[in-house]
Amino acid sequence: MEERIYGINCDVSNCVYNRDSKECVAGKIQVCRCCNEPDCCDETVCKTFKAKN
């Protein structure tokens, strides 16, 4: 298991990396743009997200 990054807040409760509906416990986090258009670069998505079963 990877070392956890402390201090990352998350409110996506259905992610396997979300602890107590407030803290991300993933070992690494990848965030990227939602689209390829240059005028929407302020929209991002967490690529680390993995849904709970």
Describe this structure in words.
Helices cover 0% and strands 19% of the residues. It has 53 residues and is mostly beta strands. Strands 1-2 form a two-stranded antiparallel sheet.
Can you summarize this structure?
The protein is an all-beta fold and 53 residues long. The chain has strands at 18-19, 23-24, 31-33, 44-46.
Using brief descriptors, characterize the structure shown:
single chain; 53 residues; mainly beta; two-stranded antiparallel ribbon; two-stranded antiparallel sheet
Largest beta-sheet characterization: 2 strands, antiparallel
Topology order in helix (H) and strand (E) letters:
EEEE
Strand order of the largest sheet: 1-2
In which range does the helix fraction lie?
under 10%
Q: Which blocks of ≥5 consecutive residues have pLDDT under 50? A: none
- Count of helix runs: 0
Distance between the termini: 20 Å
Return Rg in Å.
12 Å
* Relative strand content: 15-25%
| Quantity of strands, as a count | 4
Query: Rough shape?
Result: elongated
* Structural class designation: mainly beta
What number is the mean pLDDT? 85
Topology:
Elements (H helix, E strand, L loop, with lengths): L17 E2 L3 E2 L6 E3 L10 E3 L7
